[in-house]
Amino acid sequence: MLREIFDEDRDPVPVPTGARAAVAAVFREGEHGSELLFIERARREGDPWSGHMALPGGRVDPTDEHVMATAERETREEISLDLGPAERLGRLADLHGGARPITVSAFGYWLHGPRPELQPNYEVADTLWIPLAELADPSRAVAYPYPLREQEIFPGIAIEGDRVIWGMTLRMLQDLFTRLGRPLTFPV
Asked: Kind and range of the H or E element at 170?
């Protein structure tokens, strides 16, 4: 089912002008069904995404051949995961940043076999494989007061510990689950 919901455009997308980034949505079959790989970003002074939950990825580098190469390079750099042998699934909708002018592309990959050993670099505090069923569980939907803007409440998904998936990463999940026919719902 997962393979069928990604856009058929599996060809590399040329690197466009303007602020661009790309992430890898890495799936595999786990003990509790299909699971998706997340990173917890390291906490760093001056980093607006410090400590956030995200998919591995980052900004397009001028040396990247195409946007998908960015997702693969960044995944290799951040967590030592080579996506070369993975099955390429396609891509989700490009998203545009709200407060920051950036466009982010998400590319899907399926890993066959056991969980790979991941080695986070200085940008990543931790890696987590989260079952899709857990991400879709309505009891995990929360109203999240982002610590830097506590007067505003954002939708989120509570996962291990006090971690919350929100913001652009959540928007990618909303696209994914809508394509799966299981739209995510959040408290008002």
From this structure: helix 167-179
pTM (two decimals): 0.91
CATH number for the domain spanning 65: value is 3.90.79.10
Is 90 exceeded by the pLDDT of residue 8? no
Q: How big is the chain, counted in residues?
A: 188
User: Exposed, middle or buried by CB within 10 Å (0-12, 13-18, 19+), for 146?
Assistant: middle
Asked whether residue 162 is assigned to any structural domain, the reply reads: no
* Structural domains in the chain (count): 1
127-172 per-position pLDDT tens digit = 999 999 999 999 999 998 877 776 888 999 999 888 999 999 999 9
Sheet of strand 153-158, all strands in order from the earlier edge strand to the far edge: 141-145, 153-158, 164-166
